[in-house]
């Protein structure tokens, strides 16, 4: 059986290498019964489109960020709450426990079964004017955000002006000042060239959104138990490789942009940022009362 | 086999006379069905083909152009342009190329260039006695300036596809000379074709008339100033500038020139909608078609086949150009950049080609593909704006292709054209 | 755009059919025209909000994408009605009147078929996505495929109209049977 897989990243990126590894392990562990043909670089469509294609069965496999899964599976949207995870290791502890199971179940019910979790690091603010150390530094700033009410709510609560904008326009907009800043992880900040036009990177780490290696639920459920185990094993092993490559890539990207003159700053005390998020959480939980237990579970996870 | 269904049915539909957009859609859907893929995904691809924010520039610039035409701005611009360059044979053809060079430098998008300049220049050139095919051909081919001359979204896509090792600022600089060179070649072609067709120059009307026509055209010229100035100063993005062009054209023609009646406004809106829809439905259905080409790995197979033929450096470079050209003829740009870069770039660098120079080769090739049948967004847009059957445009476009090919060969074999400027910083 | 008065007196039901289809096309023209104007105005509002109010209206981008769907698909349907789409007429103009009749009918039948598929799968897509929300505007994601679905219906009607007109000798395509 020949499966097809989607991945947005280009050649050489940690996720691309890990997905290729997954394809290799899949063939190996299933004795060649299942092979996977990967389409990298998002050439089969945008991320929301590819999510839909996996759900509809046009593709079997995809490496997705949980952000765009939020509008489809409500449980997955919880990870888009700003500052919900203390740091990346905390996120993985949650995902490997009961919290991860709840998110998994919610996604599987919508046709996407997660096989393993990939690392996408933490997203931080960057801009061309000044280091951000307190919420007051964000005030009045036009910040490009991805399309999600939680992200735009976050910037509003910090006093900034959230400006949703197509990704392709961000570089030029940062350069000319249509927007003052944006936010992303180290590797994206570097590979998009945004560091050339926005030279202050402030480690707010406000969003830690994991990625998943997902399979179409029906395809997965139709497998024998042995096959399921083989597929899962291949996914988990590819995730281990991805985590390691991701850490290396993060360090390399950071080194590269700092060598290019980017000013990085740690934020010693993130409490003022977190406190500013209270209205975001309240509005979210008022609109999604069912998710309160999951949010509390994550917050209670050590 | 499935690929045969896709291409065969497409050719068949086109020959029978099914509109090209629907020929693309029908053949793509047939291939979806043949492969047992859910047909819903076929229609998802059609929708996603135009669910792209950057394409918003098309309706705006076309609308602005129509308002300028029906509201009298365009005619004043023409009066000024023909007073200034009318004495030169094919003067308006050359003006068309040069304005693309300037405008493309700001918009960064070939399709925005055609929408904006084509909507103004083509009617005006027709009025001045140029053949429609000439006007369309010049507009279509010179729009490539938008891709090569910075800023350019497609260069950013290329830089990302290349793995992030390229500075985008330097890459932008690398595009300046190749872009200008290409425009000069096109201007020369425009001149030669004009002479061969016997377009007569008009006698120079004198400095007084020139000055008067300039003053009269100032509010119209301000459109360009607003768009360019607004983008460069960071007041708005290119897409937003299109909307402002339309709003400004509306205000000027209504209040200043007092030319815009309710009937003219309605005409402008309805022809803008018509042209927009024609272009958009083509892009939409081409999206489904490209999905199946990617599915069948056509780009990868083409590349493997052509580069496997030879080991000679010059021949390999020519083969790369040929492969890119062929692929560009049937697929749109962004997807091809993402697919072809990882395959070709290592080959090119092993031959000593700098990634920035290779970017220029890639973009010019794929850009030329936008101007060719059977799938060429720029050609579609130019024909839609000029209301010209595609086969009529294609019959006489050769000299302009040739001009771009000359520029392409120079860019391929003379590294200094791309590398000098970025080397200075 | 009624050209039905080109040839001999058409039967009454043809007149009625043309009036109905022209009416549909006019509704589409109105809707797409208003969409274009609204699209332009909300972008003005977007920039005004960002600069003057320092509060970017975050809904503009998503609403704009929906309006473009309306313009593209309803406009494309009108294009089918008016025969304004880019097509290659080389073969049609080179062959005899009989062969040309066959080509034109085949082309119309293909369009009816494609339109029918647009209705069916467009509707399925719309229902499939009705539960997901478009971020920032909280409207059903299914709205995005609704214009395509409606376009399918219109294409079926307009193309059937062409066939009927053709069979009664009232075709209005300049390059088809005289
Ligand atoms: Na440009
Ligand atoms: Na031009």
TrEMBL record, chain B:
Alphabetical list of InterPro entries matching this protein: DctM, TRAP_DctM
Domain named TRAP C4-dicarboxylate transport system permease DctM subunit: residues: 7-417
Chief location category: membrane
Subcellular location: Cell inner membrane
Sorted UniProt keywords: Cell inner membrane, Cell membrane, Membrane, Transmembrane, Transmembrane helix, Transport
Residues forming coiled coils: none
Membrane topology summary: Multi-pass membrane protein
Segments traversing the membrane: 47-65, 77-95, 101-122, 171-193, 214-236, 242-260, 272-293, 313-330, 335-353, 359-385, 397-417
GO CC terms, sorted: plasma membrane
Superkingdom of origin organism: Bacteria
A GO term for molecular function: transmembrane transporter activity
Summary of subunit composition and partner proteins: The complex comprises the extracytoplasmic solute receptor protein and the two transmembrane proteins.
Record's function text: Part of the tripartite ATP-independent periplasmic (TRAP) transport system.
Family: Belongs to the TRAP transporter large permease family.
Protein name: TRAP transporter large permease protein
Biological source species: Aliiruegeria lutimaris
Lineage, opening ranks: Bacteria, Pseudomonadati, Pseudomonadota, Alphaproteobacteria, Rhodobacterales
Automatic annotation (TrEMBL), chain C:
Pfam families registered for this protein in UniProt: DctQ
Transmembrane found in the keyword field: yes
Transmembrane segments: 30-53, 59-80, 101-123, 143-168
Quaternary organization: The complex comprises the extracytoplasmic solute receptor protein and the two transmembrane proteins.
Subcellular location: Cell inner membrane
GO MF annotation terms: transmembrane transporter activity
InterPro entries attached to this UniProt entry: DctQ, TRAP_DctQ
Keyword vocabulary terms for this entry: Cell inner membrane, Cell membrane, Membrane, Transmembrane, Transmembrane helix, Transport
Lineage, broadest ranks: Bacteria, Pseudomonadati, Pseudomonadota, Alphaproteobacteria, Rhodobacterales
Residue ranges of every copy of the Tripartite ATP-independent periplasmic transporters DctQ component domain listed in the record: 40-167
Family, similarity comment: Belongs to the TRAP transporter small permease family.
Biological process terms in GO annotation: C4-dicarboxylate transport
Protein topology in the membrane: Multi-pass membrane protein
Name of protein: TRAP transporter small permease protein
Organism of origin: Aliiruegeria lutimaris
GO cellular component, as recorded: plasma membrane
Main location: membrane
UniProt function note: Part of the tripartite ATP-independent periplasmic (TRAP) transport system.
């Amino acid at each position: 059986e020949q499966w097809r897989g989607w991945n947005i990243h280009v050649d050489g990126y940690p996720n691309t290498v890990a997905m290729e590894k997954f394809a290799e392990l899949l063939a190996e562990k299933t004795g060649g019964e299942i092979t996977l043909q990967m389409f990298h670089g998002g050439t089969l469509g945008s991320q929301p489109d590819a999510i839909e294609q996996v759900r509809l069965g046009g593709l079997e496999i995809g490496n997705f960020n949980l952000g765009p899964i939020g509008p489809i599976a409500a449980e997955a949207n919880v990870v888009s709450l700003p500052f919900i995870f203390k740091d990346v290791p905390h996120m993985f502890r949650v995902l490997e426990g009961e919290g991860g199971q709840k998110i998994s179940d919610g996604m599987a019910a919508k046709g996407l079964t997660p096989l393993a979790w990939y690392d996408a690091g933490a997203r931080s603010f960057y801009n061309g004017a000044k280091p951000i150390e307190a919420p007051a530094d964000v005030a009045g700033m036009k910040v490009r955000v991805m399309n999600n009410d939680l992200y735009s709510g976050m910037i509003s609560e910090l006093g900034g002006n959230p400006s949703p904008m197509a990704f392709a326009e961000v570089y030029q907009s940062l350069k000319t000042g249509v927007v003052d800043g944006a936010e992303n992880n180290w590797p994206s900040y570097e590979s998009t060239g945004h560091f050339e036009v926005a030279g202050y990177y402030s480690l707010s780490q406000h969003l830690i959104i994991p990625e998943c290696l997902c399979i179409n639920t029906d395809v997965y459920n139709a497998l024998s138990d042995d096959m399921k185990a083989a597929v899962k094993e291949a996914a988990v092993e590819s995730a281990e490789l991805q985590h390691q490559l991701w850490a290396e890539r993060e360090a390399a990207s950071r080194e590269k942009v700092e060598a290019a003159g980017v000013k990085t700053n740690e934020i010693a005390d993130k409490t003022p940022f977190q406190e500013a998020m209270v209205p975001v959480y309240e509005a979210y939980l008022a609109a999604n009362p069912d998710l309160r237990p999951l949010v509390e579970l994550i917050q209670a996870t050590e | 086999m499935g690929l045969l269904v896709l291409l065969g049915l497409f050719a068949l539909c086109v020959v029978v006379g099914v509109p090209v957009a629907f020929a693309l859609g029908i053949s793509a859907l047939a291939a979806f069905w043949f492969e047992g893929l859910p047909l819903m995904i076929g229609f998802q691809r059609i929708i996603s083909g135009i669910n792209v924010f950057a394409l918003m520039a098309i309706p705006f610039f076309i609308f602005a152009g129509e308002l300028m035409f029906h509201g009298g701005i365009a005619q004043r611009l023409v009066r000024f342009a023909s007073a200034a360059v009318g004495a030169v044979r094919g003067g308006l053809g050359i003006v068309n190329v040069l304005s693309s060079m300037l405008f493309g430098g700001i918009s960064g998008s070939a399709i925005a260039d055609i929408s904006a300049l084509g909507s103004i220049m083509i009617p005006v050139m027709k009025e001045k006695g140029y053949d429609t095919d000439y006007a369309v051909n010049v507009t279509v081919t010179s729009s490539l300036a938008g891709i090569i001359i910075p800023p350019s979204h497609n260069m950013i896509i290329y830089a990302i596809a290349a793995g992030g090792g390229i500075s985008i600022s330097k890459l932008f600089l690398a595009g300046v000379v190749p872009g200008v060179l290409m425009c000069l070649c096109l201007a020369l072609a425009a001149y030669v074709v004009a002479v061969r067709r016997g377009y007569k120059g008009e006698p120079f009307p004198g400095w007084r008339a020139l000055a008067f026509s300039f003053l009269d055209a100032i509010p119209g010229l301000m459109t360009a100033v607003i768009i360019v100035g607004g983008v460069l100063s960071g007041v708005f993005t290119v897409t937003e500038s299109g909307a402002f062009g339309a709003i400004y054209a509306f205000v000027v023609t209504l209040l200043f020139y007092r030319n815009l009646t309710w009937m003219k406004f309605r005409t402008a809106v309805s022809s803008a909608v018509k042209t927009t829809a024609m272009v958009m439905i083509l892009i939409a259905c081409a999206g489904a078609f490209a999905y199946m080409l990617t599915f069948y790995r056509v780009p990868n197979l083409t590349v493997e086949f052509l580069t496997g033929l030879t080991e000679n450096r010059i021949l390999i470079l020519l083969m790369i150009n040929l492969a890119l050209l062929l692929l560009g003829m049937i697929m749109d740009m962004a997807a091809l950049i993402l697919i072809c870069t990882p395959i070709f770039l290592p080959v090119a660098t092993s031959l000593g080609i700098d990634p920035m120079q290779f970017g220029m080769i890639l973009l010019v090739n794929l850009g030329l593909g936008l101007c060719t049948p059977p799938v060429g967004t720029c050609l579609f847009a130019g024909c839609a704006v000029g209301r010209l059957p595609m086969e009529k445009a294609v019959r006489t476009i050769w000299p302009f292709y040739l001009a771009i090919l000359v520029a392409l060969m120079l860019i391929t074999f003379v590294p200094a054209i791309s590398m000098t400027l970025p080397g200075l910083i | 755009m009624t050209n039905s008065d080109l040839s001999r007196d058409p039967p009454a039901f043809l007149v009625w059919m043309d009036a109905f289809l022209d009416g549909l096309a006019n509704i589409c023209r109105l809707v797409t025209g208003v969409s274009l104007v609204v699209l332009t105005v909300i972008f003005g509002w977007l920039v005004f909000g960002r600069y003057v109010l320092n509060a970017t209206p975050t809904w503009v981008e998503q609403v704009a994408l929906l309006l473009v769907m309306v313009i593209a698909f309803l406009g494309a349907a009108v294009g089918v009605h008016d025969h304004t789409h880019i097509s290659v007429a080389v073969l049609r103009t080179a062959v005899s009147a009989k062969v040309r009749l066959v080509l034109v009918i085949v082309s119309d039948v293909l369009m009816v078929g494609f339109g029918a598929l647009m209705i069916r799968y467009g509707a399925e897509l719309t229902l499939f996505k009705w539960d997901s929300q478009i971020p920032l505007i909280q409207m059903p994601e299914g709205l995005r495929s609704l214009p395509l679905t409606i376009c399918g219906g219109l294409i079926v009607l307009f193309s059937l109209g062409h066939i009927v007109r053709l069979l009664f000798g009232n075709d209005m395509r300049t390059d088809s049977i005289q």
